[in-house]
Predict the 3D structure of the following.
Amino acid sequence: MSKIVLHLYIAGHTPRAERAINTLRQMLEHDLAGYECELTIIDVLADPQQAEDQKILATPTLIKSSPPPYRRIIGDLSSVADLLNVLNLPPKTGSSMINKE
Amino acid sequence: MCADHIERLPTGITGFDHIANGGLPKGRTTLVSGTAGSAKTVFAAQFLAAGIKRGEPGVFVTFEETPEALRRNMLGFGWDIARWEAEGKWAFVDVSPQPEEEIVELGTYDLGALLARIEHAVRSIGAVRLSLDSLGAIFTRLNDTRVVRNELLRIVSTLRRLGVTAVLTAERTQEYGEIARYGVEEFVSDDVVILRNLLEDEKRRRTVEILKFRGTSHQKGSFPFTVIPGEGIHVIPLSAIELKQRSSNVRTTSGNAELDRMCGGGFFRDSIVLVSGATGTGKTLMATTFMAAGVRQKERSLLFAFEESRDQLFRNAIGWGIDFEQMERDGLLRVVCNYPEVTSLEDQLIFMKAEIERFRPQRVAVDSLSALERVSTVKGFREFVIGLTSFIKHQEMAGLYTSTTPTLLGGSSITEAHISTITDSIILLRYVELFGEMRRGLTVLKMRGSSHDKDIREFTIDSRGMHIGRPFRNISGILSGQFTHIAPSEIERLSAMFRDEEGTETAETN
């Protein structure tokens, strides 16, 4: 199973950004505890070029580049359950056959 | 004229600064709204391109077309965006839709990243100008309209803080009605410009209107513009140029001594003479004579011919003893033949202006305006004539237009009805039926700023040109085409009646 790679883009440590980070932490520590995960948090105020390269429009933006499918989510990631569902995580074996995504 | 304290940034868009009384309000954001195909993106890109030519770097925030597409599409206007990017004069903030990706919204968000990117781009190239194309695309990309609305306000206030002068484009669903779709963009901006792409009498006509410039002045009403390769948007600022026309008292010859006498000593330089008549009355002859007279006194003369081919014109001229070919070889004459149907009047005007600027003539003739009228709407035609007339007058040139009347006897053309107030002098050429014979009559109807002969004179045409003879004395109703013959005794009685008024009338002054 490939590593789960996540990038979170925030614009300063706003309440919205904190909510997104908390939801992500919770998901990684509880629901994806057994998986190899990598989360990078990028503050676009400090590094706007990164936002430009990735063409980030809204904040917070969460990008899942691995495993496929690629996902781009905007918002403060209301709940862990919704987030897992949208991210298609945890990866199920043979998921590509069940979900034609 | 504008005595307000709001500084302007000249856009560099031809003609636009005229109608904007100098340019866009500096350091502010102007909303440019228009329907699909109204040249919003061209306006946005040209605003930056013109800035770069004045040494002002610019940032282009694109929500619709990709930077690749823009670089390619704008090359046709002569704007080498890729080179400007390499030189650090132009920067893109690319927010165009990425085909492979779908954005999922989960919870609330803001446009902090976009804001950071815009600020970064502006600071990194030291941008003076910014264009954002287009607002509507943000609304279609994001579901939360309330958020977008708030964030737009934030973007505009950030732009103000950064001190850039910005253009935001927005879509309209119809040419008249609400300023922009979503009805919110207008609150974002103090300054609104509207681009229209109207269909009038099955002809496309583009116009630009400045709806408001808060706290400062601008020209009111809509002005025609055209989009031309190698240049971009070209606004034709009618009223703005009309105000500045000068008129001189310098006289110049029409090429016919008798006609000069009838006009009180010749045509005025910086004035336009309209020659109206039915087909075959001698309009082209007058234009030809007018040109030849210019060349004879070493004036550069330019003839725009829209009805006859070059060969035919040259053959006609030879028939009247005028060698156009030799005159062209001497560099004093230029004859431009053109089919009016091949282009729109807006483009025609720009083409003619370019010809005039290149050749720098002292006199210009257009034969005939009626040919141009066929390809346009009434309003478009009037604007064309005003535009051409004011341009010609600006250049210290004498102009002569011909116009064809639709009926052989009497009558006036639609052309005349719409442009007679614009021209300074009007000469009518008419057929006169006299005892079963067709003769020709000529009269000077109007000569602005001068007295003139008010007779209707008979004239003939032969191999040496036009010969003006004696007035028709025993006939009336020539101009209307409803002739009545009058007994000589009656004429004497009438002339005795009006003797006092002889020669005292002076025409209206400018």
